[in-house]
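pyridoxal kinase
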Amino acid sequence: MKRIVTVQDISCVGKCSLTVALPIISAMGIETAVIPTAVLSTHTAFKGFTFRDLTEDITPILDHWKKEKIIFDAIYTGYLGSFRQLELMKKMFGDFKNDGTLIFVDPCMADNGNLYPGFTKEFAAAMAKLACLADIIVPNMTEASFMLNIPYKDSGYDLKYVENILVELAALGAKKVILKGVSFESKKIGVMCYDGETKAFSSYFHEKLPFSFHGTGDIFASVCAGALLRGLSEEKAVALAADFVVRAIKATVKNQNHNWYGVDFESEIPFLVGSL
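Tokens:
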């Protein structure tokens, strides 16, 4: 059985970060270890949430793992909340990466043209330096813009514009780039990919739903990382991740009294497992 470790915060209520990564990747038949970077009572869309930073626990965890000679087939980072955590991930990559270890970085820090609260352009530049150590990065269009320090465009761009972004992201050092939230027409949205070694582009588009939920980016990244570890090609992993997100959103809105804070991905787990 493959083993992955995912490093991100955990919201005790709210379908995002570790509360989606752990069940999704485990359901895909992969042993899933975690390093929680912080614990929150709920995710940050709720008011009055509690927050406890766990940065000081990361090094002792890693030291214990090294002592026990624990190895991983993949390291998957999500939301990292500080410059210190970025530096700790660089050290973790160096200490735990072997010849076959996949380094998968989701630079969770921005969306819809804006950085998340507490993040700065300087943090985005530091995240770009972490991304240069990855085999695969999965930014959305906003995160890509901040990592490259270019103006964000929410529409009106063409294929050449997106291809240039992909090439520039790969130039940071990552071997492959998976760019989320690309849309050339009002009814379609999807993902474009670039392999920095073969110079090949690929894409996958699907219907654009008139709904927005927290945590869908985390779900996409988790499915994609899991699918790659299960041996799917990048193109098939991306398609599966995108389809799963769409199905989860549709399953959610079928219920008139659905949760506002996250999608009901749990109901689509049988589809995910059956697709592997």
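The first helix runs from residue 18 to 27.
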